[in-house]
Amino acid sequence: MFGATGDLARRMLLPSLYGLDSDGLLAPDLNIVGTARSDLDADGFRTLARQALEEYLPDGFFEEEVAARFLARLDYVPLNINDEGSFAKLAKAVGDAEPRLAIFLSTAPSLFEPVIAGLASVGLASDNVRLALEKPLGADLASSREINDAVAARFSEDRIFRVDHYLGKEPVQNLLALRFANLMFEPLWNSAHIDHVQITVSESVGLEGRVDYYEGAGALRDMVQNHMLQLLALVAMEPPTDFAPTAVRDEKVKILRSLHPITAATVADDSVIGQYGAGVIDGVSVPGYDGELGRDSRTETFVALRAQIDNWRWNGVPFYLRTGKRLAARHSEIFIQFKCIPFSIFAAGGAKTLPNKLIISLQPEETIGLAMMAKTPGLDRKGIRLREIPLDLGRNDAFADHRRRIAYERLLLDLLEGNPTLFVRRDEVEAQWQWIDGIRAALASADIKPEPYAAGTRGPTAASDFAKRHEFAWHD
Fold it and tell me: Catalytic residues, which ones?
């Protein structure tokens, strides 16, 4: 595990591996070797790991017996990528486990090539080794190709596991079950019955110590390019022949390649970008983006887009994507609005019908809701009265006997078992970058600047105008 002392390892990776161990999903002889620049020994790393477990595991999940077993699996080797001797020590710590080795690379992308070269120099890049790569995988299509070329020089595509942690979330996987395990949805899943789709990822946090990274990325590259386009692909893809890596990812890449380009001529109508200013979050005053950064910037912290898919199933159905930082609440969901019924038999009595809506909430709660029309109870002498009612499937209610897992648990287990279905293939990444690069070029060509919005609000007023212009309402 490269980057073993970093924030991701402490908050997500170590707690996830503990969770797998707690459920008996790790082989008894599996060892975990952490490595980073920090000058620790194995005991020091185990102390750090224990502190991470105590801080980040859900309340009541930490058990001394499980923790003792898990911590005994841990070893640590400090590593300087410019020192070949460091890689030799790492190889010694791995020992004869190399034929069953999985490497999780959570470092800056600029270090991928020297790290892989170092691994290869000591025999840790053989045909049996699997390599997981944490994002970001480049800043545009060209840099992404450079990174992928460097990785492909030592690892074949079937051994490369590109991580998008959204794909490890239960509601995201449940989307596939919803579509392809229920007869009632798939016949309606097309332009004849769906009016539009909204995908929202709203964050209340600001830069959170990621100043340099975020200034070089912005909302388009940080969130839309990976997480949101993956969600769009899962919503829109054709039914795969089976739930196998090649079949699922083949269908996703078809959708990503079908995204209609947003050009300089259409970008003003198809997009809104914004940047948060000072405001109030949960009763606490917070600075604006420029204040956190320490200088003026044109980096967008909010983006809303209208995406269109050029294929038979989705022709004429807009997909509205919206994400931002320092918004009113942390909230992520997929919202699908169906079309209105073609004719209401209740209209003569004054009853109003609303279109059905399917809401798949990813966070903070994991739920699936279906808004339907129902009769209001009562003796109605002037005709039936109607009301929209929600049918909610809350994960905590329906699966109370199952604990809520960290998304990385699923991904780490699949990495260990060699199942790449929920990881991102190279052609997916490049299709995503091609579409995003086109939008960025269009924004630059049209000289569109971010609209200001106050922290703690729902984003720039231009986003509301965008919705009115396209005759829909954001689901909040």
Answer: 227
